[in-house]
Write a structure and sequence with these properties.
This protein has 3 helices and 10 strands. The chain is an alpha/beta fold and 203 residues long.
């Protein structure tokens, strides 16, 4: 669990990468207790075999002029399951809050499953908040475009998934951290997307 309390004019940039355990749950709670805060919590979960990834986030806007950004992406193959529960609370004093929350999941097998519950609870009038969730598969037209140019199907799948995952990892501000996380994601893709799809067990 990660719990933070943020004061005036602070900037917070957090990222959650979940790849390894058979059963993993991470909870992030943030109280934006000051004014003019910039808060970011983004993440990626990559599941294969029988893995279960659960990410729960709670962002509490308590004061005015706060900004929060949350982008969580998932990739699931085999019989993996992903769960995202995210809530943004805007209290009555938190006028001029700007909150964004999005969860996107990519299913690479018919047995993979995702449950997503983004939520807004707003008690202030002058705010700009949005949230959403999407679940989908790889685009057949994009796959055809790549394979028609001589790229093997498994490699084409890996390239598309890599681009999808990198959109979230690119949000990491520190280059060294971003590169390290990108390397972990690339290794996972080589094992579970570029090669034969996983059918069971741990990642």
């Amino acid at each position: 669990m990660t719990a933070v309390r943020i004061a005036d004019k602070a900037v917070y940039d957090g990222f959650v990468l979940s790849v390894g355990a058979r059963l993993a749950r991470h909870e992030v709670r943030a109280e934006l207790a000051g004014r003019h805060i910039e808060y970011g919590i983004n993440g990626v979960y990559l599941g294969a075999g029988d893995q279960h990834h659960d990410l729960t986030t709670f962002i509490d806007h308590a004061m005015p002029n706060g900004t929060s950004h949350e982008m969580v992406k998932g990739v699931l193959t085999g019989r993996a399951r992903g769960v995202f529960q995210g809530k943004i609370l805007v209290r009555p004093d938190a006028q001029k809050t700007d909150g964004f929350q999005m969860n996107r999941a990519l299913l690479l097998s018919r047995d993979a499953e995702v449950d997503s519950k983004p939520e807004l609870e707003i008690y202030a009038d002058d705010v700009k908040c949005s949230h959403g969730a999407t679940v989908g598969e790889l685009d057949d037209d994009q796959l055809f475009y790549l394979t028609a140019r001589g790229i093997p199907p498994a490699r084409a799948r890996a390239l598309l998934v890599e681009a999808y995952v990198q959109e979230a990892i690119a949000l990491i501000g520190r280059v060294l951290v971003r590169d390290a996380f990108a390397a972990v994601a690339a290794e996972w893709l080589d094992r579970h997307v570029a090669g034969e799809p996983a059918t069971g067990g741990e990642a």
